[in-house]
Design goal:
Number of strands: 23
Strand order of the largest sheet: 5-10-2-1-13-15-16-14
Mean pLDDT: 92
CATH topology of the largest domain: Carbamate kinase
Bound molecules: coenzyme A
Structural class: alpha/beta
CATH architecture of the largest domain: 3-Layer(aba) Sandwich
Number of domains: 2
Amino acid sequence: MSDNAPYVKWFRESTPYINAHRGRTFVLHVSGEALLSDNLTNIIGDMVLLNSLGVRLVVVFGATVQIDQHLDALGIETRFVDGVRVTTAESLPGIQQAIGKIRSDIESRLSLGLVNSPQHGAEIVVTSGNFIRAKPYGVRDGVDFQHTGEVRKVHAKAIAGQLAAGAIVLVSSLGYSPSGEIFNVNSVEVASEVAAALIADKLIYLIDEEGLLDADGNLLTEMPMSEVPDDVDRLSPAAQAKRAAQRGVSRCHLITFNRDGALLEELFTRDGAGTQISRTSYEQIRSATSEDVAGIIELIAPLEAQGILVKRPRELLEAEIEHFIVIVRDGMIISCAALYPFGDKGELACLATHPDYRDGDRGEALLAAIEARAKSLKMTSLFALTTHTAHWFTERGFRQIDVDALPEKRRNLYNWQRNSKLFEKPLA
Ligand SMILES: CC(C)(COP(=O)(O)OP(=O)(O)OC[C@H]1O[C@@H](n2cnc3c(N)ncnc32)[C@H](O)[C@@H]1OP(=O)(O)O)[C@@H](O)C(=O)NCCC(=O)NCCS
């Protein structure tokens, strides 16, 4: 085996990720600290790699440290109130200079074409411009924040146009008002706003830590957005990732800027390297236990009250709980179905999805799980009784049958007054 074997293996295993990421839009936030890190050359190389693999890349950069240093050198005092810089008219030119310098530094690094650099042969085009329209942060608790701003609008179409042309779009924390004023906006917020406006596939924050940590200091590799606490600092990457996720960005990642390769590991390996904050929370489909009875009752009671489902007394549900399969999300039962055996036939019953979670293929997933269970019990067909949902069943391979076709035991229980329609599906 050659020395390159692990590399070849890793490269092959990254194929699904390369395919999945091609043509997708990623917004990458690089803080001022990250720009000063020893790992910056590798991070720039990774930007080039992503661009070369067909990722549409927007890079939003911060400049807090560089602005502090530059204003300090100019002898201009600057202050923060509640974590937000007060951008005075006096400090604004210095801030523009610091940001302008970073911008051209990144542009020059991305333009580097030396043979021994990852950029060699890539000919990356970098664009930046007035993509952010800003409004004043205003006067808060008596403090006039002057040229500190908030994002009012992201010119998403213009950014998308540049991305479609193959450019890396570079966005700073400066925004402009229609009256021509310049505002300094928090770059973490800018990244979140840009990602939301583009409905980006990923928003990635490069941070000092490995990712989000639990109380024992262990890395949390996944976190549904609902679990990001509401009281985290509004301008922190975690809070702004949550905000972007709430506004439609599918995946947000917090990855360390300190470790070489962390970004690629997170994007191109199964295990990842940082914390992924996802829009959809974890959902689990599993057999029900007696602890699920209360949750199932909560889910089906309104449907029983409307006469859509047959009423099941709690004791009956407890006795029959092993027949149920449930979908659980953040500890809440949002979907359920039951399989009652009648010889070699099974009745699919009590199929329900919470109204907030319908049309997400959960009914379909439960049907598949019930079918699998029925097959494992050597059943040859599934039948279902319904008053409201006939088409749902016929669209999924069921056909209507007569009461006579029911297994005798079930036929005797048929409620003629309810007059449900009957459907059957053979199991291949
Ligand atoms: C039927 C039900 C379980 C589907 O759950 P779900 O998690 O939304 O299921 P899916 O996402 O797999 O299917 C949704 C699709 O079924 C369609 N659908 C929902 N109810 C339907 C009905 N009564 N008739 C026809 N189609 C229906 C939806 O429009 C959607 O179609 P689309 O994919 O083309 O947009 C849910 O609507 C429900 O709880 N209904 C009330 C209880 C009920 O009627 N149970 C069946 C009797 S046992």
